[in-house]
Specification:
Elements (H helix, E strand, L loop, with lengths): L2 H5 L31 H10 L3 E5 L3 H10 L3 E4 L3 H4 L11 H14 L4 E5 L9 H13 L5 E5 L5 H9 L4 E6 L20 H13 L4 E5 L3 H10 L5 E4 L7 E4 L1 H4 L17 H18 L12
Parallel strand pairs: 1-2, 1-8, 2-3, 3-4, 4-5, 5-6, 6-7, 7-8
Helix pairs in contact: 3-5, 6-7, 8-9
Length: about 300
């Protein structure tokens, strides 16, 4: 165990530190004993057969709540283009727009690993551009790591960013930034195409990616990637259950966004209705004169 791991497993977070080789789902888990989640802890979780949770996050208050809940990884996704800025796709959000969101989350998260998406146009031109953009996300945004979409073609970009001292999470399978090239929102890794997804994952891991996220790939492909990567942890969003971690867009899983959900989304709350009912009650109180009441004012 490294000094970093030893020092950061002494004070439990919702549990007690777990000794090597002793993990089972019913026990206090290894990750529960980590005060500050690092990339090495995710790799150790995979080695122990332990899962971790990841959610998107775009602001400080939400980051505080998710951190208190024990979510291990917070992703400031380029999905902020849709869920924060109201764009039709992730393609239009810029690096300058991403950085304040990353800074808000990183300022509030005390335990979670904060991963920032590299938006479309911020790394595709060259490995040098990728390094420059990643540095801004770390230096100005306070990110702990960056996420980069793309196939094995981007191995040199990943290698350059990692060599600059910045951890990279690779993103394969369905990559939203390439939705037009992929022909829309299509499941990846079907049939013979599975081998290509696995090859991409292995190549990007060999380039230095500390983790590989798989999106909208078949269960069999997700399982094959997880096995092929050995000690390198994986994250799934609609890519089967065998990954080390799983991620969802928080507005989807909590029902803040209404409408049809992707098949892989499980909703744990219905915040849309809760917030709508609260806003309606507030409006009705104002219209009726029930608010503000005398106790909401100041005398003298």
């Amino acid at each position: 165990m490294s000094n970093e791991q030893s020092a950061e497993t002494t004070a439990p977070y919702g549990g007690t530190p777990q000794t090597a080789g002793g993990f089972s789902p019913s026990d206090s888990t290894y990750l529960d004993g980590i005060k500050k989640i690092r990339t090495v802890h995710l790799a150790e979780a995979k080695a122990r057969g332990e899962k971790f949770a990841m959610l998107t996050c775009y602001d400080a208050l939400t980051a505080t709540i998710f951190d208190e809940a024990g979510i291990e990884v917070l992703l400031i996704g380029d999905s902020a283009g849709n869920n924060v800025l109201g764009h039709e796709s992730t393609l239009t959000i810029t690096l300058d727009q991403m950085i304040p969101l990353v800074a808000a989350v990183s300022s509030a998260a005390q335990r979670a690993l904060v991963v920032a998406d590299m938006p479309f146009g911020s790394y595709q031109v060259s490995p040098e551009q990728a390094v420059e953009s990643a540095i801004r996300l770390m230096k100005e945004g306070g990110a702990h790591a960056v996420k980069m979409e793309g196939s094995a073609y981007y191995a040199e970009h990943v290698r350059a960013v990692v060599n600059a001292g910045i951890p990279v999470m690779a993103h394969i399978g369905f990559t939203p930034q390439s939705e037009h090239a992929l022909g829309g929102f299509r499941i990846q890794g079907r049939g013979d195409a599975s081998a290509k997804v696995v090859e991409d994952a292995v190549t990007l891991a060999e380039a230095g990616a500390f983790c590989v996220l798989m999106e909208m790939s078949t269960n069999a492909t997700g399982s094959a990637v997880n096995k092929a990567l050995g000690p390198v942890p994986t994250v799934s969003i609609g890519a089967g259950a065998d990954a080390t971690g799983h991620v969802l867009v928080w507005q989807d899983m909590m029902g803040l966004r209404s409408g049809k959900m992707a098949r892989f989304v499980k909703q744990y709350a219905n915040l849309h209705h809760i917030m709508k009912d609260a806003a309606s009650a507030y409006r009705n109180d104002i219209r009726s004169g029930a608010y503000p009441a005398p106790e909401h004012g100041f005398e003298g």
